[in-house]
Amino acid sequence: MAMTEPAALYETVRDEVGTVLVGHDELVEHLTIALLSRGHVLLEGVPGVAKTTLAQSFARASGLAYTRVQMTPDLLPADITGTSVYRSQTGEFQLQKGPIFANLVVADEINRATPKTQSALLEAMEEGHVTIEGETLALPDPFVVIATQNPIEMEGTFELPEAQRDRFLLKLTVDIPDRDEERRVLDRFNDAPELDAESVEQVVDTETLTAAREVVSDVHVADSVREYVLDLVAATRDHPDVEHGGSMRASLGLLNVAKARAAIHGREYVIPDDVKALARAVLLHRLVLTADAELSDVSPASVIDDVLADVTPPGGDSETELAAATEMADVEESATDGGSVE
Description:
Blueprint: H1 4-17, H2 25-36, E1 41-44, H3 51-62, E2 66-70, H4 77-81, E3 82-87, E4 92-97, E5 104-108, H5 115-127, E6 129-132, E7 135-138, E8 144-149, H6 162-165, E9 170-173, H7 179-191, H8 206-217, H9 223-238, E10 242-244, H10 248-264, H11 272-283, E11 288-289, H12 291-295, H13 300-310, H14 319-336
Helix pairs in contact: 1-2, 1-3, 2-10, 8-10, 9-10, 9-11, 10-11, 11-13
């Protein structure tokens, strides 16, 4: 199986999404990494920066069945998972699946839903199935939730508790574009006012996605890089400004996304830069700061910057040496399996 499959998948999706959106290449890369890593994404940004359009465009380009749920305080768990509906014509109850039965579910403004409804969504994310009227139903595969939230409007919202934030693999921030990018947006939509997410074509099929996921699972991680992942997460737990640091799920998530990043960059092995590039997205939403740190306006991002600066990456792990280590691991595995080594 060619190592270029994840790279080709990402480039194809990026180019297709780019026919509508401007300046979102890094976000598309991270969404692709989440998809290949079987993880969910928390997308934060002020209103009007195309969070929902980005998610919908990514779903269409990736060939994923897409649903969107507008989270509101009056939304019930059954509005997401589904319920049994009585049909008077037949005199029987019929199971009606909710919007969660899709490959990609966008939960818009997740912090506007009540904790009970949030829990129903997050439980489905964790378990991969839902129970409706005593019947357990598996969710589709692939299954990705992209939850959006607005960081500036807190009135009438229910902040996600730490344990529920931990279920999101990545937290991504959609920033306001710089002036040049915003001008390109104006020019593009001035020329084609009807342009929207519906203009994006499917460019990936299920077989390609499945093959790319298998490639990611085979990416080699040297022992020194694994130790680097453990050191980074441990450093968040020991930081003086942190009450609760990264969980074991954070360590696993950081390892998996590093493998996916390596694969979409055409490598069969992870390098420390893969870990560093995604450390903020994996750890940002998982850190709980001390009361003193919050009063002093310390941010989780600054803590992660401290950790990345303080923890020394594997010194000898250049791309060349990691490639050599990968080849040696393959040779050793072949010998263990009964192959001959000359």
